[in-house]
Write a structure and sequence with these properties.
The complex is a heterodimer of chains A (122) and B (112).
Chain A (H helix, E strand, L loop, with lengths): L2 E5 L2 E3 L5 E8 L8 E6 L5 E7 L6 E3 L7 E6 L4 E6 L8 E8 L9 E2 L5 E5 L2
Parallel strand pairs in A: 2-11
Antiparallel strand pairs in A: 1-3, 3-8, 4-5, 4-9, 5-6, 7-8, 9-10, 9-11
Chain B lengths: L8 E4 L5 E6 L11 E6 L6 E4 L13 E6 L2 E6 L8 E9 L5 E4 L3 E5 L1
Parallel strand pairs in B: 1-9
Antiparallel strand pairs in B: 2-6, 3-4, 3-7, 5-6, 7-8, 7-9
Classes of the chains: A mainly beta (122), B mainly beta (112).
Chain lengths: 122, 112
């Protein structure tokens, strides 16, 4: 069954780091571009980062560039988001999701997980 | 990245058709056929309804359709049903900065 499951969220102090994980099943990460999208409490969706199907290209929103790093482990079929220098405005539910078409870089984001909540607070 | 512009709310009666607009620029909607639409019910994850402007993923009702004209994309829901109530977000590939996605501001659809 095709699904992604996020984990790793929690409460963290400003300036600290946190790593989110996204375990994929029913498909292989090496066939699809993958995304992280976040949603602050009561707010809309914000795209955060993406990695191409072959892992060669990584893209980031301006709001996280230089602080967040997207990566993956093909042997574990798991996607990661390393977040550093966290700020209060990074507080959100972080979703992992898959590009709708294999190999394609853009088009639509499908198969969303349930998300993992990150709260940045002192 | 500046968000795409959507109306805050749209409402309709059961059986009617409604259209949600999504306005961007030549750097996103106007320049590329990579517009997608998402439905989100309260407390739930978003669901992809339309990709590449007018394609429906498997399992999405034919009542949902997408289109684009210039810098504006539209989502039309025909035969409105109570279960269609929720939030809808558009999204587009953008080159305002480097390769990335940008989401719309979101539209609350109410079935009255």
């Amino acid at each position: 069954q095709l699904q992604v499951v996020e984990s790793g969220g929690g409460v963290v102090q400003p300036g600290r780091s946190l790593r989110l994980s996204c375990a994929a099943s029913g498909f292989t990460l090496s066939s699809y571009a993958m995304h992280w999208v976040r949603q602050a409490p009561g707010k809309g969706l914000e795209w955060v980062a993406a990695i191409s199907y072959d892992g060669s290209n990584k893209y980031y929103a301006d709001s996280v560039k230089g602080r967040f790093t997207i990566s993956r482990d093909e042997s574990k079929n798991t996607l990661y988001l390393q977040m550093s220098s966290l700020r209060a405005e990074d507080t959100a539910l972080y979703y992992c999701a898959r590009e709708v078409i294999p190999v394609a870089a853009v088009g639509g984001i499908d198969n969303w997980g349930l998300g993992t909540l990150v709260t940045v607070s002192s | 990245q500046s968000a795409l512009t959507q109306p805050a709310s749209v409402s309709g009666s059961p059986g009617q058709s409604i259209t949600i607009s999504c306005t961007g620029t030549i750097s996103d909607i106007g320049g590329y056929n990579y517009v997608s639409w998402y439905q989100q019910h309260p407390g739930k994850a978003p669901k992809l309804m339309i990709y590449d402007v007018n394609n429906r993923p498997s399992g999405v009702s034919y009542r949902f359709s997408g289109s684009k004209s210039g810098n504006t994309a539209s989502l039309t829901i025909s035969g409105l049903q109570a279960e269609d109530e929720g939030y809808y977000y558009c999204s587009s590939y953008t080159t305002r900065t480097t390769h990335s996605y940008v989401f719309g501001t979101g539209t609350k659809v109410t079935v009255v």
